[in-house]
């Protein structure tokens, strides 16, 4: 297995070296080849990079689309935040390979961004600015170029100026409507990133104020947002906390806690970091793969979590996560299209570029995880656990709940009565042929029925016998024939096929 280390400055480097010297290296239990990792990155650059502009395109077809037309040239090129994430993807590549092309691209992306946004603080969103500050301190650590340190300090100084005592502390999400909780908020996205950057700046400069700011922000964030590893999203209004279960929040907080650990050597911070990652693995995955979180901004969230998992391994010796990264990278690269481009769902095939325009942030997440993971030399299909939580898969016309006890994961699918409403699982199996699906459900209003289809062809109408109450769970089994690889299995309300009554669906398990 390839050994990876990061070149870090200051106190964090001392802590990382001391930890890695005693770490026991775990063997990945997944599948990924070096060629797959290389191809994922090269395919992405070939499809999305405009060398004449030093900038990435928003879509694979290089034209603006109304659904996300907010970057330079009317949205032809990626917006402010997307470009920051793709810059980090380039740095993921350089950390893995130290090749001259990705080293040069670190500079090129930065130059293109400066040309597109000559005054980067002319942005209403502090988290956007904060991500460029974070990327800049990372670029400084990787390249030693002083201009990146200067940029990180300048941007961080601007963002940190929007910290105040409203809601007990923290930095405002936006730098407009400051203090107005009906139009603004304070969240993990802004503050987790700021903590990370402050501590890296402290490591680079020794300036005490960076450490003081990080301590203050982390205490506030930890006190108000962390619930034993499960992160809240934001606070707004009169002090109302809102919960969104994003990999983004889990990863951002884990990265901040890790940096606190590296500076203080207090194991309590490391425990907080791993608890956030563990919660994400337990609750935001299907059969071990991080869930599809949608399109636009959310399509890039997974790469932020996995990037911070990579840091936990490299900087704090948490090698138990190595197989998690390799399994996710393998799933992502196995589902790229014929052009080598991946999509937002790492468990399902990515549409061909001739049939759909793929957003660069989603494709960049596939390229990123392929660089973050350690290849194990295998290209076998990764089946994972075979357990898929219904609340984490593709849904149409249904919603999630968690009010009735006894469910697994973080909830279940409920409110399922409209004709055509469905839940679609992308099951990955290594062996083609007969398999058994086990559906865990509750039917508190009496017997219910649903249609089950595999890859668009109806398999059966399944009856869910009454469980006598919504807090009582049972199981039904469905025999199916699956192909090797990814299989789309949908469970839907089909009135014409006799579907009836309410049912809550907790999870699906497939025999492997």
UniProtKB/TrEMBL annotation:
Sequence ranges assigned to domain CBM6 in this UniProt record: 386-511
First and last residue of the signal peptide: 1-26
- Tell me the GO molecular function terms: carbohydrate binding
Q: Name one Pfam family in it.
A: Glyco_hydro_76
List the InterPro entries hit by this protein, alphabetically. Answer: 6-hairpin_glycosidase_sf, CBM6, Cellulose-bd_IV, Galactose-bd-like_sf, Glyco_hydro_76, MUG_Protein
Q: Which keywords annotate this record? A: Signal
From its record, what is one biological process in GO terms?
carbohydrate metabolic process
Which residues are listed as membrane-spanning? none
Tell me the protein's name. Answer: CBM6 domain-containing protein
The organism is Leifsonia poae
